[in-house]
Amino acid sequence: MAKASFSVLFALVFQVLLQCLVFFPYTGTVTGAASDGSALSHGFYDRSCPNLEEIIQNVVFQKFKEAFNTAAGALRIFFHDCFVEGCDASVLIASSNTNKAERDADINLSLPGDGYEVFFRAKRALDLQCPGVVSCADVMAIATRDLLNLVGSPRWEVLKGRRDWLISKASRVAGNIPLTNQTVSELMSLFNSKGLSVLDMVALSGGHTIGVSHCDRFIDRIYRFNKTFNIDPTMDKDYALILRESCPEKTSDPYIVQPNDVSTPQTFDNAYYKNLQKGFGLLSTDQILALDANTKGYVNSMAEDQKVFFQHFVRAMVKLGEIGVKTGRDGEIRRDCGVFNS
Predict the structure, then answer these.
(1) Is 267 helix (H, G, I), strand (E, B) or coil?
(2) Could you report the per-residue pLDDT of 23-57, keeping only the tens digit for each?
(3) Of 57, 44, 60, whose CA–CA distance to 133 is shortest?
(4) Among this protein's residues, is 80 annotated catalytic?
(5) Which of 261, 296, 288, 265 lies closest to 275 in space, CA to CA?
(6) 42, 80, 208, 214: which one is catalytic?
């Protein structure tokens, strides 16, 4: 009885969220960030799969009820997919005896299973009504948007028409994904290579307002930082000591995690930027954004006004979703998101 009541309450809250959240109808086209971004359109499936959005939204809502962290997981997987040779669902491919796929690259091994599962479920649901029509790459873009919307992100129109790529190799991942020990200059160079600006980089980093990080991603900041400081001086000392309670120096437990946003870890808001101003950034690559002259101003403006963060985040997500897309006759529409058609 209690479980049923919770489900009803959750559904009511969901409807309220849909009515109250901000909608950003961003329709701009990004130049230079995609192989053929102009071929994408909002109405790409209007005739071939008119109920596309509703089908995906229903799957997303159900998965979200099962696992709240699916939103952060899906965002991370989508980002990793787009940054390695484009938004083409290559990260979903399973390795075979003859090919080690992107999914099994060292940096991708921690990508969460719930994020993968929601994409696979949505594709299966679509193929019951529109078999062989919707690409896995488009499913990823739409489902990620819907999941973020459920935790408080504004909703935007997703451009569609991506195709699924025919190559997925772990060897192509290195050098394309940000690392936690990189400098702002190195991060700027990486994002620029994907057609994204410094402002886009800071806005997308705000995705860390949800989700978690494993201890090994920040443990060097809270123990033996350098010869002068035991704790990274850019991190609030009390915060570091709290982190030590959960992450012992010699820990090897891969399941211990900490929320990226210490203040509102389950809400998509601008608290992430406010945390950075106080020295509460969990990862080094987060904290340095509030200190570097190239990014500090953007951090401050997004900390001051959540609407500013939302506007920049939506624009950056649209641009992210156009990186290296395959359209037209390139690639394929996979029958199974985890396996090439042939």
Answers:
(1) coil
(2) 554 444 333 333 445 589 999 999 999 999 999 99
(3) 44
(4) yes
(5) 261
(6) 80
